[in-house]
Design brief:
Jelly Rolls; 2 domains
Length: about 280
């Protein structure tokens, strides 16, 4: 188990780059050991105006986020130092890996891939400096992932006739709504799952009015479900077959900054239907 050496640190894969491991291996980042964690560049390409001051420019979008991580590793033995370098190379994978930045207890992360050489410089046999360049294709700094579920709106219980005085009115109301808060400053990713039985489900983001509506011919039996990825615009039945063809209104919403409320309705009521929303806060 690695013990962090500071309140602020960076991890890539399974390695905490500001820590002391049980084996005695220490990872220490340079003072400027993480570059690229600010705001990513934009896609704006200004075109100079002819015969006048200024330029034309269209919409600008955040580009990928290139980052460089630098530091030193010190080990008790040459064998442990060699193993530490191998683990660093493995963690800085060509495939997607999680890079986490903790700033005084505030944790955010992104998926990165190695985008260059891992450059070690040996200092004797038991220590080396390193430089690793990675890139996050999605530049957002992702935070906490939130999950909540609801059934279809309903009211059960209450007063029935005939009744005897004195009487009490006990009713249970299900609103059919899910409320989650994005504490970041940019829209975060959203996924959803609808569990059957359910007929013609409808998911509406109340803040924007965007509604994802499925035809009444889409019937989920008990034990069946739909998996929805709002950013990929993808709907899968039981995690396999596409059901995008059943969508009659494509109101794909996002996890906007602040409070978000989604409502769950359907073409007809079924008691076992359930909607689960999973959303992640994000910063620029």
């Amino acid at each position: 188990m690695a013990v962090s050496l500071a309140l602020s640190y960076v991890t890539i894969g399974a390695i905490n780059l500001t820590s002391r491991e049980d084996s005695g291996v220490e990872w220490i980042m340079d003072v400027d050991g993480l570059k690229g964690w600010g705001a990513s560049s934009g896609s704006l390409k200004p075109t100079r105006k002819p015969r006048q001051a200024g330029a034309w420019g269209g919409l600008s979008y955040s580009a990928e986020r290139p980052m460089v991580v630098k530091g030193v590793c010190i080990a008790p033995t040459a064998a442990l130092a060699s193993d530490a370098l191998d683990r660093l190379i493995d963690s800085a994978s060509l495939d997607s890996v999680v890079l986490t930045v903790v700033e005084s207890g505030r944790s955010r992360w992104c998926n990165v891939r190695r985008d260059g050489d891992v450059l070690p410089v040996w200092i004797g046999a038991t220590a080396f400096t390193y430089s690793v360049q990675v890139v996050a294709l999605d530049p957002r700094k992702l935070g906490a992932t939130l999950t909540a579920s609801t059934a279809l709106p309903s009211t059960t219980g209450g007063l029935t006739i005939p009744f005897t005085i004195p009487y009490s009115i006990n009713a249970v109301q299900v609103t059919g709504q899910i409320s989650l808060t994005n504490v970041g400053n940019v829209a975060g990713p959203v996924t959803a799952r609808i569990d059957g039985p359910c007929v013609g489900p409808i998911i509406t983001h109340l803040g924007t009015g965007q509604a994802l509506v499925f035809a009444s011919s889409l019937v989920l039996n008990a034990g069946e479900w739909l998996s929805l990825d709002y950013e990929k615009r993808q709907v899968l039945a039981n995690g396999q077959s596409s059901r995008n063809g059943y969508i009659t209104s494509r109101g794909w919403s996002a996890f906007d900054p602040g409070m978000n409320v989604w409502s769950f309705t359907a073409a007809s009521y079924t008691a076992g239907a359930q909607l689960t929303i999973t959303a992640t806060s994000a910063d620029k």
